[in-house]
Amino acid sequence: MSDIYRRTAKGDEEIENRTYKLDYFHRFVLIMINGKKNSDTIISNSSEQWNADQCLKDLEKHGFIVNIEDRPNSMPTNSSTGDLQQSLIATIQKHLPDNNTKVINKILNADNSHKKLSDAIDSACIFIKLTISEDTSEKLKNELHQILDNSKEFI
Amino acid sequence: MDIANYIFIIAAALMVYCLFLVLKLKSQLSGGLVGKYWKYLTILVIIFTLGYFALPFFNQLPEHILRLTVAGVFLFGAIYVLITIKLIKSIIEAFSD
């Protein structure tokens, strides 16, 4: 049976401040955790090289996430920054199912500010325009900026 | 072996290295502005590499074929420079958009 995870306070702290310096693959998976998607969905949305199944186990073992199937009364997490990054990454994955690691890294490496994320989107889209597709770059740029602008709660 | 032959060997070795680099980078460029020009650069580098290896046999060619070959080298060289300039221009434009 597939599990549903949510981030703990430690997981949110890692997303926002990189306190525990997780590697990229664990961070990618951690960002996808939202308390709604089950583990099968997360694994299928992940790149094979991330080894998402193992990442989930590691994250749970080290207290970054908890299985809410085991804890039905657990409270939902407040992680607007992570959710915003997650929706940006999901949009990137939708338009660029392959060869998206460098683009996702740019979003993940951006600081938690509107300006930095906007710069990361622009930079990622230039990379796509030069090396992947001009059309995809334009579509993705518009969509990502729209998501960023629509994120009311983002500080 | 005279000095010209040494220069030919160095040139051929450099061109083989260019071919290696151009093919290696090609796998990272599935399209986009750079990808569009890269396939033309790859074709030209392949032509030049073959040409460099054919160099030792050029003295067996009739003079009019040899003149045609040299003209071809100049033409492809000019095309190569043109593509490189257009590629750099596209990259600058992409960053200035």
Structural notes for this entry:
The complex is a heterodimer of chains A (about 160) and B (about 100). Chain A has two domains: about 5-65; about 80-150. Chain A is about 60% helix and about 5% strand. Chain A has eight helices and two strands. Chain A has helices at about 10-15, 25-30, 40-45, 50-60, 80-95, 100-110, 115-130, 135-150; strands at about 5, 65. In chain A, strands 1-2 form a two-stranded antiparallel ribbon. The longest helix of chain A is centred in the C-terminal third of the chain and has 18 residues, at about 115-130. Chain A is globular and about 40 Å long. With about 100 residues, chain B is mainly α. Chain B has one domain. Chain B has helices at about 5-25, 30-55, 65-95.
Describe the main β-sheet of chain B briefly.
Answer: none
Q: Percentage of helical residues of chain B? A: over 70%
Unreliable residue runs of chain A: 71-78
Query: Numbering strands along the chain, what is their spatial order in the largest sheet of chain A?
Result: 1-2
Helix content of chain A: 55-70%
Estimate what percentage of residues of chain B fall within beta strands.
Answer: under 5%
Number of domains of chain A: 2
Task: Tell me the number of helical segments of chain A per DSSP (H or I, 4 or more residues long).
Answer: 8
Cα radius of gyration of chain B in angstroms:
16 Å
Mean of all residue-level pLDDT scores of chain B? 90
Structure classification of chain A: mainly alpha
Order of helices and strands of chain B: HHH
Number of helices of chain B: 3
What number of domains of chain B? 1
**What sequence of helices (H) and strands (E) makes up the elements of chain A?**
EHHHHEHHHH
Q: Oligomerization state of this entry?
A: heterodimer
Assign an overall shape of chain B. Answer: elongated
Which stretches of chain B are poorly predicted, pLDDT < 50 over at least 5 residues? none
Which whole number gives the mean pLDDT of chain A?
A: 80
Largest interface: which pair?
A-B, 10 and 13 residues
Q: Report the strand count of chain A.
A: 2
